[in-house]
Amino acid sequence: MNPVPNNATPLFTAVSGSVRHLFQLLKCINFATKAQVRITPEGLRFTVEESRVVQGIAFLEKSLFTSYSYAPPASSQAEDDEADDTAVFQISLAALLETLQIFGVNEIKDRWASRDPAYGGITGAIGRGGRPAAFENRVLGTTGVCRLSYAAKGEPLCVVLEEAGVTTTCEMVTYEPEYQEEIPLQRDALTLKIIMRSNWLHDAVNELSSTAPSRLTIAASPSAPYLVLSCNGPLGSAAVEFSKDQQLLETFQVPKRTVNTYKHSLIKAATRAMSIASKVSIRGDEQGVLSLQFMIEVEVEGVRVGVSFVDFRFVPFLSEEGEDDSESNNDERS
Questions:
Q1: How far apart are CA 325 and CA 292, in angstroms?
Q2: The pTM is what?
């Protein structure tokens, strides 16, 4: 750690008018103990991964903060972006979440996944007055102020929380980054691209979980059945089929039949994001890498102030690893 003069300008400072906005987004990727943070002029990028087979990325755009300042050293500005690791570090995600809820955060347990008529389930429609947005004040309650600062490489990440006249300061230890690359998705070689309401995907995954499966298979085809999620488990087998109705699948681009299988527990890691997002973009490439990108609306007093995106990447089971799933995996790889 290099000593930082008291009067030195911090590398990064930001102020958020709501602690809960940050908490809810980071909670979506809370499936590993540490998160890698990258500070950019456009916002904060939090990345979590497990064994290089699943990766969760939450991007907090600068527009979500009331003030945002990033001032990299002059020497870093002169270097290539790939070589600049000044603003990349790891922190304990669990500790950060605990810090953000020091003053308490209202936890809504699957409030939007209920069977209320306003919700509609997998095949229903959501009324305007039904499911509240993830960050609406009637869900989150009162808001506090969160100040973030990062003085220099190797320094702690400082989190200052203010609410009802009470101020709490926490300095979080930062660690050297362990990985630099994200799980690659070949955007120029997509085998499927589907956009739909996130809550319908959430319902489907929850329904399939009743069989206690270890794997989940996603099959998409340009002809019926268009999109099928299926699994087998010790309690039986189940499948959920989606029609090509534009009200159900907003975008459907599947040039040829594709079938891939993923570890069910990893897909379940994205269910929190499914439950609070308004839409999800499902993409897959020729290697079978799956991307679930969730669009989460941010509302303050009923007014939409922006959106945030949480992206999950999943590596499929290889055909030689598959046992029961080998036939379905080989449909496209043979």
A1: 21
A2: 0.81
